[in-house]
Structure formats: C-alpha cells, structure tokens
Write a structure and sequence with these properties.
Structural class: little secondary structure
Number of helices: 4
Number of strands: 22
Helix content: under 10%
Radius of gyration: 32 Å
Mean pLDDT: 94
Shape: flat
Largest sheet: 22 strands, parallel
Order of helices and strands: EEHEEEHEEEEEEHEEEEEEHEEEEE
Amino acid sequence: MEDAAFPHMGESSQPLPWACPLRCSCPRADMVDCDGLDLRAFPNNITRAAQHLSLQNNQLQELPYNELSRLSDLRTLNLHNNLISSEGLPDEAFESLTRLQHIYVAHNKLSVAPQFLPRSLRVADLAANQVTEIFPLTFGEKPALRSVYLHNNQLSNAGLPPDAFHGSEAVTTLSLSNNQLSYLPPSLPPSLERLHLQNNLIAKVPRGALSRQTHLRELYLQHNQLTDSGLDATTFSKLHRLEYLDLSHNQLAAVPAGLPRTLAVLHLGRNRIHQVDADRLRGARGLRYLLLQHNSLGAAGLPAGVLRPLRGLHTLHVYGNGLERVPLALPRRLRSLVLPHNRVAVLGARDLTSTPGLAELNLAYNHLASARVHRRAFRSLRALRSLDLTGNQLTRLPSGLPSGLHTLRLQRNQLRALEPEPLAGLDQLRELSLAHNRLRVGDIGPGTWHELQALQVLDLSHNELSFVPPDLPEALEELHLQSNRIGHVGPEAFLSTPGLRALFLRANRLHMTSIAPEAFLGLLHLHVVDTTGNPEQVLVQLPPTAPRRPRAWGP
C-alpha cells in the first residue's frame, strides 16, 4: 500500500535552499522523493531533517545501516518495488527510527519479516514478498499500529507466533490473503474491523478463534478449503458488528449456523450447498444480499418460504443451480432476483406475486417455453424495470409485461413472429434485444413498434431479415441489424428514426450500390455506420451536417 499523503513532485528546475540527493526531488526540506530512478545504491546526501523518504520503483538490494540509522526523524519510508532481501535489511536497521509511522516494503524479496519494527508504527506493508516467518516484535508492542498488509507471501501457521500482535490493540485492518495458512490464526487483534484470509488453505476455524473480534465488520474467507466440520455454531456468533462475510469457493454443504443479525452481505457462491435450511438464516434477519450461485440447489433446494424471514432482503443470486421453479414465498421487499442457468421450465400465474417490488428479474438460460409461461405471470411486478429471458425456448413474446419496463432481453430464443399486443403499453421501454431469433420482416405485425415511444436501443441482429423493418420507433438512437439477409436499404428506410446515432449493418448481403444515396438524409446525429463483412465494400455518404465520423468498411 502506498501512502497517499506522500506527494511525487517530479524534479524541480529551481535551486533548493537545502541539500537534495542527485536526480531526486525535494519539494520541502523534510521530503525526499527518489521514485523510479533505477537506483542500485542508497542515495547519499539525504538530509537528517527528512521525514518522508520515497525510494520505490528502484533496483535497491540492501539498506545500509549507517545511512538509515541517522534519519531519526523519518515518519514515512517507502521501499515499494525494489529487490531488497532479508539479508539486505539488517535487524538493527530500524532501531533508531523511533518516529517512523508508515513503512512500505511490498514487492521485494524478503524471506522473513524484520525482527523489530519501531513502536511508533501505524501502517506496515510487507505484501508480495516471500515471507515465511514473522516475529513477536515485528508487529507486537505497537500501540498505534492500525493496518498490516501481509498478502501474497508464503506464510504458514508455523510462521505466525501466538503473540504476533500482543500489545497492538488498535489494529483495524489485517490482510493475510494469498498465503499458506491451514487454519484461522489464533490471538488476532480484538480491534480488527477488516480481516482478509482469502486464497489460503484454511480448512478449519478453531473454536473461539473469533470470539474476541467483536468489532469485526468484514471477513473474507473465500477460496479456501472450508467444510461444514471446519465451522460450528459459535464460529460467527460473537461477531455482533459483522456486515460482510464471504465464504464463496469453499466446500460447504450447508449454510453456516450462528450467523449474526448485523450481517448485510453473505456470499456463499461456488460451494456444495444442496438445500437452504430456514433455521440457519433465522438469526441473520438483517441480510440484504444473499449470493448462492453455482451450488447444488435442486428442485427442493429453496423450500417455499425459507427466505421469508429475511424481510429486508434486496438481492438474491441463485444462478448456476438446478432449480426447476422460481422459489415461492420470497421476501416482499426483494428488488433483484437473479436465476439464470437453472432448469426453470414453468412460470405460473402466482409464482411472482410475493415480490411486488421486484425491479430486476433475470431468468436467462432456463427451459421456459411460451406454452408454460402464464399470461399473468408478470402482472404483479409493477416496479419491474429489467427483465431478462435470454436463452430460453420462447416462440412468442410473453403477455402481460409490466408497463414500467426499461430493458427487455429476449435474445437467443425461437421467436418467429412479433405482434403489437404484447408490446402495448411499454411506453417506458428503452432497450429491446431480439437478437439470435428467427424473425423475418413479414412476420413483424403492423404497429408492433407503435407504442415504444421511449425505445433508444433495438437489437435485431442475427435474424432472417431481408430489409430494414418499417415504421421503427422515432426515439431510436442505436439499431443493430448485423448478420441478417439484408440486400438493399431503400431511400425511406430511416424516415421514422431522425435521432439515429449508430447503425450496424455488417455481415449482411449488401453490395457497393445497395444503399440508396437518400437513405441517410435527415439523420443529423448519425456518426457510426458499420458495413463490415458484406460481399462488397459499401460506401456510405452521410449528410454534410452530420458529424464526420462515418465508418464504411469492406469485407
């Protein structure tokens, strides 16, 4: 971590009233900045008055004790990104730096941590080294220490002494991610607010290991080897201020017990959970975000009403499971339901009635066919703004779509026809994707676009259109027609869309003279026309008043 308070001023052309090492910058008498000078030796002539010294991004391999020891006023020492080894950092190097508050030695070659760091220290960053061991006085007996960064090292539990933080009762942030820990270290500072332990080998949290960390707000345990037997009902029960818990990418088969009521975000994605037990969530009544993606939830994985006690739940992610129905009796205040890549094949009239406040519904890549989507399935969702039905088996547009929709995604279905009735009343729709279907112009009923007064983006790419559909919405700004069968663009093709800004016609059947010269008259805002990948190069002439950035490419 770099010190944001340490300015990099660059070299000054003005003579300074105080001594400054060659090529370095000294904007103040107490600041020496030698960042990125490819230095291979510690610079000479550093003033004893220096309080902030930056030597980051150089080629230093060692720090001479005699040079460092005389800088007794140092508050900040930045050695980030050098080649310093433990042998090049003598144990006595910091003994005289009794005022040092910030030390940054990340991205070096340390194999062990310094045995002693000054008592005055506030921030210590030893990340991205090769550290296998720290010592009792590396971070112990530091009453002002607030943040310790040890991620991306090679620490095992054997390299952490039991009294590693004894006498350091103010540490709020500790990062031990990307190491080789096999269990949660004991004797962590009770003052911790953020604890990063992701990407280790942790299979167990010993009983009582977190019993003193009552100030903890964020706990990151993802990408470990935790199983149900590695946790118990007391593991998290004392964490009365915990708000964020990430247990994703482990081997859990059940939701952990003893979750605190303060928890707002629970990430359980990519485990082996096959069923959610209501008793396990009853204590976490304050939960707002529940992430259960890529587990083993089958047809009975989320029993009806199991999440109902979570009255404040805002977002539920369960994509990549084996659910066959939308979970019933969900919390009424749910705003986002994300269910792609399941096996949902039926959408009944009352399946979504328990969530009238839903704003986002994602049912992409399920098994929904038009015959099994009830015509009233979406009627109760008056707050719905985004509906994603991508990658299903729909042959026609769903009925009863909420009038407040802003985004409707229906790409990669089997749509063969469009009728105006399902789109009637969608006067707030801004984006409509119908790509990768089987639509032909003759199968688009008259008046289909009539009520889409706010539509700005229309994607009809990868269909079977032979020409530009007529009477497109007046507000349209972006039109995707690539990968169709369009062989001609007539002079009146865009009369209804004066605000068009971007038009995509690549990979059609256009030739050099396929586009009528008058086609773009009146399109004063048009600045992108993509005709790549057609049989011949298509020349596009934009109106003189349009911005001069046309794109007319050949195959």
